[in-house]
């Protein structure tokens, strides 16, 4: 699989890792590139199969460790409902909560950041004395491309 990934994006995460003093190994970088190469969310086993093309010795723990690292650093998001992964549109430019629009026909995932939606959720929680630490907003449906077919 040939990946045409924007080198600026790879350079950006390399710089972020260097600034944080964390190690972006070749395998972590490769898993990130594989995730970025698709508009669809990728499962760990799909990533493993793709990774094996360049690293035949790769095993499931290799991919899971890379995914854990990339999520920890804020470079990717986990799509909870499908147990798969997508790249983060802001690549951890700032901590944020996202809404994911997931097409049930083609599998494409769009990440949205809507501060007014997040503020509304926070206000609703506050009215009940609840403090949100994390949330996942996933909306399933049909994308524009699939609905126009």
Tally of helical runs: 6
Biggest sheet: strand arrangement: 4-3-5
* Helix-strand topology string: HHHHEEEEHEH
Shape: globular
How many beta strands in the DSSP annotation?
Answer: 5
What is the structural class? alpha+beta
What oligomerization state is this entry in? single chain
Main beta sheet strand tally, sense and closure: 3 strands, mixed
> Poorly predicted ranges (pLDDT <50, ≥5 residues)?
none
What is the CA-atom radius of gyration, in angstroms?
Answer: 17 Å
Q: Give the terminus-to-terminus CA distance.
A: 28 Å
Strand content: 5-15%
Helix content: 40-55%
Look at the structure and give the mean pLDDT. Answer: 89
If you had to describe this structure to a student in words, what would you say it looks like?
Homodimer. Belongs to the Fur family. InterPro entries: FUR, Fur_C, WH-like_DNA-bd_sf, WH_DNA-bd_sf. Pfam families: FUR. Zn(2+) binds at residues 103, 106, 143, 146. This protein is an alpha+beta fold and 149 residues long. It contains 6 helices and 5 strands, in the order H-H-H-H-E-E-E-E-H-E-H. The strands form 2 sheets. The protein has a 3-stranded mixed beta sheet with strand order 4-3-5, with no helix packed on it. Strands 1-2 form a two-stranded antiparallel sheet. Helix 2 packs across helix 4 (60-72). The two termini are 28 Å apart.
């Amino acid at each position: 699989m040939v990946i045409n990934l924007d080198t600026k994006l790879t350079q950006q995460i390399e710089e972020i890792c260097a600034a944080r003093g964390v190690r972006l190994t070749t395998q972590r970088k490769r898993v990130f590139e594989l995730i970025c190469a698709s508009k669809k969310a990728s499962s760990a086993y799909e990533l493993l199969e793709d990774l094996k093309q360049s690293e035949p010795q790769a095993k499931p723990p290799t991919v899971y460790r890379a995914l854990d690292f990339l999520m920890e650093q804020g470079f990717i998001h986990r799509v909870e409902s499908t147990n798969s992964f997508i790249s983060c549109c802001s690549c951890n430019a700032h901590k944020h909560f996202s809404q994911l629009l997931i097409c049930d026909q083609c599998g494409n995932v769009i990440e949205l950041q809507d501060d007014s939606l997040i503020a509304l959720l926070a206000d609703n929680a506050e009215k009940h004395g609840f403090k949100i630490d994390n949330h996942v907003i996933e909306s399933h449906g049909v994308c524009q491309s699939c609905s126009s077919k």
